[in-house]
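Comment thread on ticket #2218

A.B. wrote:
> Attaching the input chain for the structure job we discussed in standup.
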Amino acid sequence: MITVQDLKPLRQQILEWRKKDKIIGFVPTMGALHKGHLSLVEAAQEECDHVVVSIFINPLQFAFGEDFGRYPRQLGSDALLLKEAKTSLLYTPTTEIMYPENFSSKVIVTPDLTEKLCGATRHGHFEGVATVVTKLFNQVQPDKAFFGEKDYQQLLVIKKITADLDLPVHIVGVPTMREPDGLALSSRNQYISPNDRQTAGLLQQTLRWVKRSLRDAMPHEYPALCEVASNKLLTAGFDKVDYVQILHIPSLTPIHDRAHLSSARIFAAAYLNKTRLIDNIVAG
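C.D. wrote:
> Ran it. Output below, let me know if you need it in another format.
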């Protein structure tokens, strides 16, 4: 596995692969890698000749008071995992490389995608995501980029900027990897205390309860179902529920017709102490 930190050697290696007409896959991450990340690498390897993985904890996507300072940093063990997974190249840019002095540009996506769900409370988050992903795409210049469906709103935002800005990258969504009890794999799961671990698995189970309940519900009853689901989470031991919503894909608009459930997903975000967990499943 090749490891580079600077932009020049990265572009030199990409150019060498381009000269040989190789298909380049890309998996951008913030490190603290787990089986979910490795499933993205595996998916990329199935479709591409070479796979680039980046590790960069992006300060722009953390709102004031969030966990940027304590976000897990474990580059050494991450690099070993990627080497074992036969990753072609690991790119580890510094903050100074990504955001040099006098950097002042941002990529802003339409608020109907970014100011609901996670964007309603994580102000500026998707602006930071859109900016760093656009920069990484320009640096790596991949043919395909792979993102997990756990962060489905993020996936939609990235598809939007790619289409709107004519970025020559095909975006591939990869299904969420889960623990046996259904908890979606996440780097933040390591924040969960042993006492809270059983409660954490109830997030996905509650989403599945909503999905079963939709079979006999009418569209005007969907908000009430979401409210019941929120109360279930609070009763189960979650400290706060940001949202439980049923929304159309890709517009993230409410569902007013049962026929549209086949193109909808159920979204949730809730806190266990200070750990914010998110998840989503297909509604129909």
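A.B. wrote:
> Thanks. Noting for the ticket: Strands lie at 2-4, 24-29, 50-55, 89-91, 144-148, 170-174, 240-248, 264-272, 275-282.
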